[in-house]
Amino acid sequence: MKKRTYMITFLLGAVASLLFIFVQLPYYVTMPGTAQALEPLVHVENGDKDEGSLMLTTVRMGRANIASYLLAHVRPYYELYPLQEIKQEGETDEEYTNRQLYLMEESKEAAIVVAYKNAHKPVSYQPRGVYVMSVVPGMPAEHILQVGDRIVRIDGKTMNTSEQLIQYVRQKKKGDQVSITWKRNGKEKTASLSLAPFPQSPQQIGLGVSLMTDYDVVTEPPVRIDSEKIGGPSAGLMFSLEIYNQLVEEDITKGYKIAGTGTINMNGEIGPIGGISQKVVAADQAGADIFFAPNEKGAKNSNYRQAVKTAKKIGTKMKVVPVDTFDDALRYLQALQ
């Protein structure tokens, strides 16, 4: 009898453990990730080696199970997000991953251009197509276009940039038909779509897609960024600083360990990111001396202000520095002793 009771108890415990681990809840859980040195990832041909290090910071994220859901209620800097706050409506896991990888590519292209321009090295960039980043459910493009499709023409007109495409569509009216030609897996397809109002912005009409311009960037000397499976645009600032540091003779790190985060565009403007507190924790755990945080032009709840609060909470000696542009970060580093 006792043996049978033990067996039932064991089986119940095993089932409960499996449920805790494998049952997925409608949430994502995020937590501090790592602060990773960029020098092994960024390769400028014959680039300078430096004493300090520039690091990108990451946030670990995964679909919540029962165990991680409970942990998120007791562990500091573990945060829960409903699915709809992470993935766009109707977006599959594969589409979400692809969107993040495309955002990383866009971020790398901008970082290269900014770094080479500031280092006064030869760089050119030409648009080579418009990519679909997401598709809005219920809009004309649903079931027609997919994330990663490259739109090449509208009504027979070549579209090199997302701005060109958006401007062309803005001239149309609700119900107007446009012929879309796109490439997917090397094959070209065409379809006619009727423009419709966006559900959240009825005054705007469109296809129901968000877009990204893909650029062909040519540099001298050549550069390669091995971002592996890192997704999202938040490493843009730190990529640009690492590329610049390899291009110039001076060592802008001055021997310090420098972490940070922030998107960057072709003009060198830095934008906000998610998970700023978790990235501050990751940078502190990696022993960073300095952390760059997007200032958002002094906004009340800016990334910078959140980063300062977190730094005080964890009692770090790491200096948190507000930046709005690449120039802000560069000036700060050049002024270091």
UniProtKB/TrEMBL annotation:
Claim: Iron is one of the keywords in the record: no
GO biological process: protein catabolic process; proteolysis
Residues of the active site: 234, 279
Keywords, in A-Z order: Hydrolase, Protease, Serine protease
Residue span(s) of domain PDZ: 100-184
EC number: 3.4.21.53
Gene Ontology molecular-function annotations: ATP binding; ATP-dependent peptidase activity; serine-type endopeptidase activity
Domain Lon proteolytic: 226-336
Reaction(s) catalysed by this chain's protein: Hydrolysis of proteins in presence of ATP
Superkingdom per UniProt: Bacteria
Family to which the UniProt record says this protein belongs: Belongs to the peptidase S16 family.
The protein, known as: endopeptidase La
